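To the team - LLP complex, inputs and output below.
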Amino acid sequence: MVATQRQSGYLCENISRAPSGELLLAGQSVASLAERYGTPLYLYDENRIRERCRTYLGALADGFGVGRARALYASKAASFRRLYEIMHEEGMGIDVVSVGEIYTAHLAGYPLSLAYFHSNNKTDSDIEYAIDMGVGTFVVDNEEELLAINTISAEKGTRARVLLRLTPGIDPHTYAAVATGKVDSKFGSAIETGQAESITRLALTLDAVELRGFHCHVGSQVFDSDVYIRAARVMLDFVAYMKSAAGFVTHELDIGGGYGVRYVESDPEIDIRANILEVAAFMQDYAGRLGITLPEIAMEPGRSIVADAGMTVYTVGTVKRIPGYKSYVSVDGGMTDNPRFALYGSRYTLLPVAAPLGEEVMTCSVVGRCCESGDIIQEQVQMPVDIGRGALIATLTTGAYNYSMASNYNRLPRAAVVMLRDGESYLAVRRETVEDITRLDV
Ligand code: LLP
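Output:
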């Protein structure tokens, strides 16, 4: 894996400090944005999102050839209308996993023929909905689902384009909750057990599905150098095998999610372009050695498209110092807007907004306001020793899997989402109100 080291203390070049010391995102004052829109607040640097889309699109086109590869934004990372508009404008495909994501993309005017519908358990009504909405491709997890799609497509007089999700048996060395490529995964049909071959043969017998090819996704937040190359090798072996064993020519091969991102200074910075070019060179060479034409390639980055465009801003409430023990800084958000520490122990970088850390610092846990001890944003955080009520704290790299995993636990309203673009800001998702929270109660 090609990695470069950054010197800056702020993880991504869109984060800086004004001469006064105050924190800036995309050149805009975080404190002013907090004042204008309130906290807790999700901020997104739109230009950074667009830049990351272009990095993937450019590298895929250069590596595999124009029109020979596509980038699909894995919208589980962050899903709201404005993002689908941006993806459409940038020429990105999308990966959707639920009727909610499909509908949101539809509302954004996103052409659903470019959408790929994933998930390991699509219900009959999900399948009907996706067909009715014109979703372009189903990524099929297992035989039961394949048969259900065939039946429903036949009833509707259509033919569904499908990719089959396979498990290549690769350990991506990431945290357990996001590792999906091993044989004993809930996702996909394993190559090793023969189930991949059997679902492929089954698909070829069905009239109302058009088998386009295969998909795999080995895990998320992957840094390990050769994970994609190892997965690609197994998948191409399978493509060659199905050609010789069943005469099936694979048109599309989707190699799954994108690269890992930096949450803390010690995380490596991945050169996405260089890595994609490396994978592309390998795949072209290996396909040649196998005597097959390289199928059209797809990649589905989510995290690396939006993560470091995002930042969450909180207002400090209570600061509790327990002599001889530890200190807690409570903020007005928590696991409801960022459950990733509670779920995975994820590391984050937190900064005081007003000014950089000086000499006088304290180590504390930054915690939320849910009635639960596990409601922690991060432990072992350094904050100014005199931090107190009303101060602002920012968590960096929260653009992925934060808003999309937010909840109303304790009936807390979800935070607003604000986009920053060319020195201006605008609301993309308004702050929830107590009326929003109670509107489904009958
Ligand atoms: N494609 C498939 C089939 C996936 O399952 C995923 C992520 C992606 C693409 C996008 O992967 P990425 O580029 O974002 O690494 N909630 C967890 C992450 C779950 C990822 C699930 N699948 C977290 O907060 O870390």
